[in-house]
UniProtKB/TrEMBL annotation:
One Pfam family of this chain: Rhodanese
Task of the protein: Catalyzes oxygen-dependent 5-hydroxyuridine (ho5U) modification at position 34 in tRNAs.
GO process terms (BP): tRNA modification
Alphabetical keyword list: Oxidoreductase, Transferase, tRNA processing
Residue stretches making up the Rhodanese domain: 122-217
Family matches, as SMART domains: RHOD
Lineage, opening ranks: Bacteria, Pseudomonadati, Bacteroidota, Cytophagia, Cytophagales
Family note: Belongs to the TrhO family.
InterPro entries in the record: Rhodanese-like_dom (IPR001763), Rhodanese-like_dom_sf (IPR036873), Rhodanese_C (IPR022111), TrhO (IPR020936), TRHO_N (IPR040503)
Gene symbol of the encoding locus: trhO
Entry protein name: tRNA uridine(34) hydroxylase
Enzyme class: oxidoreductase
Keyword hit for tRNA processing: yes
Length: 326
């Protein structure tokens, strides 16, 4: 068993004073030596954090002890070390940025547990719809799923016409995403637009992999930490992506080593080593090229980082992180 844990979670539950709670939550993470990203919003919490097993257990217990968050379901993974380099607890308007005019506490798609999803996913009357960004489904998705060429969930209304034919068709629409959070709003939006029989994979791809083996999820699942992608399918794994440079099959996704590019790309090990983790020869000439260590994950370059006092950027400016309101 590995010594660290990675916790992925969200909950839609009203927070009356997000600024005050953000401070309390930040201090809790500091006390437990957790790193990661947490979003506090009037509508709830959304976070991914990493830490030692005992610290993560204490964190989960603390949140479950709060009546507002007693219903949080944590997706728990193992790791050899922290999967983040810093801690950020931020205030935002939404726990997942969508700008969709919906409230998941009032209406959302029918939740399917992983085993239920597994039984339904191959039904000819079922349509799977991926609600993630294009770079996420490029490296992994369910067999036969509908995907949209969108950068973020805000663009969903621009793609509704692509599935307009499903209205009134008696097809079961099942939405899915990484951990389930996007689908709460995406499925609610589909219902508001006149779609019927709308479902969502509860807990997302990650929970499906952990509890039902990940069957028929091709490729790997993109995650927002320094692992970049994680395997999901333990039953019939396949590779769906190719190396950006040479075209060979690979699921290795990295960020381009050129900071001015920083594109998410799939790059095989050979091309990564040969081209220093860059996606083009022009990127390879970037005078600020970052050193490629084989992972393709680059945290912001800072000096003397302290979650309590802020950190010094490469330009020498101190950035305070005790309060971050976006």
């Amino acid at each position: 068993m590995k010594p660290y844990r990675v916790l992925l979670y969200y909950i839609y539950s009203p927070i009356q004073n997000p600024v005050q709670y953000r401070e309390e939550h930040h201090l809790l993470c500091l006390q437990l030596n957790l790193l990661g990203r947490v979003i506090v919003a009037p509508e709830g919490l959304n976070g991914t954090v990493s830490g030692l097993t005992a610290d993560c257990e204490a964190y989960m217990a603390a949140l479950h002890a709060d009546p507002r968050f007693s219903g949080i379901e944590f997706k728990i993974d193992e790791a050899d070390d922290h999967t983040f380099q810093k801690l950020h607890v931020r205030i935002k308007n939404e726990i997942v940025h969508s700008e969709l005019p919906v409230d998941p506490l009032r209406q959302t798609g029918i939740h399917l547990e992983p085993d239920e999803f597994k039984k339904l996913k191959n039904d000819p009357d079922v349509v799977l719809i991926d609600m993630r960004s294009n770079y996420e489904h490029a490296v992994g998705k369910f067999k036969g799923a509908v995907t949209f060429d969108m950068e973020n969930l805000r663009e969903l209304p621009d793609h509704i016409q692509e599935i307009e034919h499903l209205k009134g068709s008696n097809k079961k629409i099942i939405t899915y995403c990484t951990g389930g959070i996007k689908c709460e709003k995406a499925s609610a939006y589909l219902l508001s637009q006149g779609f019927d029989n709308v479902y969502q994979l509860h807990g997302g791809i990650i929970k499906y992999g952990m509890e039902a083996g990940g069957e028929d999820f091709d490729g790997q699942c993109y995650v927002f930490d320094n692992r970049v992608t994680v395997p999901v399918n333990q039953v019939n794994p396949a590779i769906v992506s190719t190396c950006f440079r040479c075209g060979t099959a690979t699921s290795r996704m990295i960020n381009c080593a050129s900071p001015s590019c920083n594109n998410h790309i799939t790059l095989c090990e050979n091309c990564g080593d040969e081209h220093g983790g860059t996606c083009t020869d022009d990127c390879k000439k970037d005078p600020n090229l970052r050193a490629y260590d084989g992972t393709g994950y680059y945290g912001k370059q800072t000096q003397s980082y302290s979650p309590m006092q802020g950190y010094v950027s490469r330009r020498g400016q101190r950035v305070e992180v005790s309060i971050q309101v976006d």
